[in-house]
Design brief:
The radius of gyration is 24 Å and the shape is globular. A two-stranded antiparallel sheet has the order 1-2. A hairpin with a 5-residue loop joins β1 (2-4) and β2. The chain has three domains: 1-199, Up-down Bundle (Growth Hormone, Chain: A), CATH 1.20.1250; 204-260; 262-413 and 481-514, Growth Hormone, Chain: A. The chain is an all-alpha fold. It is built from 19 helices and two strands. Helices cover 72% and strands 1% of the residues.
Length: 514
């Protein structure tokens, strides 16, 4: 039961227990954004998937979560926040178990879609519960705790996922959600109070449906394009046409109808419009780089899965440390300078990665990962602050949903694009390097080389092909790292378009982390 004290602060029974159980729900959802990364090569072998197909395990989850995050507020108002949160926890746990049981690629991708659909509501609903049970003076500490719980996933995900995969099975990266989900479900059932229902709540189903269809068809287009040779495939042409048509209908609808899913007036605010582009680019550079690191460490460098998880962990630690630091600087330092520093640090980390080879040291991987995570820490809070600083208060809830939608789409599109480019560039680089491998190359005059890599024997040709493939793959990774560095540099001039608010706005900094 919630009442008010003489000071106006809410007095909530079992507030500590409520905080603990909703934080558990948040950690469960945040953990799944990275815990499966290090297990991907093992999942790939179990379900007989190709290198480009296995990333559907990541993108399907992100896309589903992106699509279902904006309507979570409507569902909570219409059917009750507690009821929807309990359904979300149950559905997420059941989908996690099904992912662990999956025997084929279509099964695990389908169950990951279910995970994303149910998991989308966990973070925003848990956040709204915390905002309700703490006073305005206490919300800063509550949101700091909330932010830490969101960032625990990227820090612990690779480490826990690596340990479970190595010592038990990759399936346990999904089964681990069962005990966490059961505790969260029990806590929410016992301690959280139901909200009043708003039977008049409405959702713009046409706008929501068209946007969802556009996002889903775009993701299918990107995920399957390289495999089906792009527009030489009827399926790819159909997906492109569906995406374009759905997006066209969506745009026409929001400009001509009332009470639409997206209010186009939001984009008249320059800071919000620029912030949407920023967070899209951040989504590409962060999660796409994580998707690349797993095969780089385990396939190219031969790292055991536990070691790969440990060396990837400091990336999230860098983000967490700098978020605390930047949280103290916001309001004291021009937010645009903090964004510039974050983008510059991210670009430098990507530049350093363009010089990597499979011989790079563990310390270099850890330190560069920490620096990249630090760059992200400099971007999250300042970007949220300045994006919503000039937006009308009554539009911030809607703006937050779109902001997180843009980040999730950026992540899924980024993973698909860098994976497709990796596959395509491997073929191109292999062909280019192979042109220099002829029996007349002076290098074959060396007896040691001619014995091991003789183009005149089957064993020598196989060894040569393996060497050329390795070199082509290394160059392809460098090309992807270079692309993400360029994106970070291209985003820097956008800082000049942002307006400094005349008065500091009270913005929920944790919105960027949903």
């Amino acid at each position: 039961m919630t009442t008010a004290s003489a000071t106006g602060a809410p007095v909530v029974a079992n507030r500590g227990a409520i905080t603990a159980c909703v934080i558990l729900a948040v950690i469960m959802q945040a953990l799944d954004t990275t815990i499966a990364n290090v297990a991907l090569p093992y999942i790939q072998g179990s379900v007989s998937a190709s290198a480009d197909q296995i990333n559907w395990v990541l993108t399907s989850y992100i896309v589903a979560a992106a699509v279902m995050t904006p309507p979570s507020g409507y569902l909570a108002n219409r059917f009750g926040r507690k009821r929807i949160l309990l359904v979300a926890i149950t559905g997420f746990v059941v989908a996690s178990v099904l992912c662990g049981f999956a025997q084929s690629l279509p099964q695990i991708v389908g169950f990951r879609l279910l995970q994303g659909l149910f998991g989308a509501a966990l973070v925003p609903l848990s956040q709204s519960i915390l905002l309700d049970i703490y006073s305005a003076e206490e919300r800063g500490s509550a949101m700091a705790l909330f932010g830490v719980s969101v960032m625990v996933g990227p820090v612990l995900g690779p480490v826990i996922g690596g340990w479970l995969t190595e010592n038990v099975s990759w399936r346990w990266v999904f089964y681990i959600n069962v005990p966490i989900g059961m505790l969260a479900f029990a806590g929410v059932s016992m301690f959280v109070q139901e909200t009043k229902l708003d039977l008049k709540a409405r959702l713009d189903w046409l706008g929501f449906g068209m946007l969802s269809l556009a996002i889903a068809s775009l993701q299918m287009f990107l995920d399957r394009g390289e495999q089906l040779n792009w527009f030489s495939s009827v399926e790819i042409i159909v997906e492109a046409l569906v995406c374009a048509s759905a997006f066209y209908i969506f745009i026409i609808h929001i400009f001509t109808a009332r009470d639409t899913f997206v209010n186009p007036r939001l984009f008249l605010d320059r800071n919000f419009a620029v912030g949407m582009i920023f967070i899209f680019i951040i989504g590409i550079t962060y999660l796409a780089s994580l998707a690349l690191m797993t095969p780089y460490l385990q396939t190219l460098m031969g790292y055991p899965v536990v070691t790969a998880g440990i060396v990837m962990g400091p990336r999230g630690l860098g983000t967490m440390v700098c978020m605390f630091l930047v949280g103290r600087l916001v309001g004291k330092v021009d937010t645009r300078w903090l964004l510039f520093i974050g983008l510059a640090i991210t670009a430098w980390a990507m530049y350093d990665m363009t010089g990597w080879t499979p011989d790079v040291s563990q310390w270099t991987i850890i330190s560069t990962g920490f620096v990249q995570g630090a760059g992200l820490g400099f971007l999250f809070v300042p970007l949220t602050t300045i994006t919503f600083a000039t937006l009308a208060p009554e539009r911030r809830a809607e703006g937050t949903g779109l902001f997180n939608l843009s980040r999730n789409i950026g992540s899924s599109v980024g993973i698909s694009v860098v994976t497709a480019l990796l596959t395509q560039n491997q073929q191109i680089n292999h062909a280019n390097i192979a042109t220099y491998v002829t029996p007349y190359n002076p290098a074959f005059g060396d007896p040691a080389i001619s014995r091991a890599l003789s183009p005149y024997s089957a064993a020598g040709r196989a060894a040569l092909d393996g060497l050329v493939t390795l070199q082509a793959t290394i160059i392809s990774y460098v090309d992807d790292f270079k692309l993400m560095m360029i994106l970070s540099l291209v985003a820097i001039p956008l800082v000049l378009l942002l307006r400094k608010p005349s008065t500091p706005a009270k913005v929920d900094h944790s919105a960027a982390m949903e």
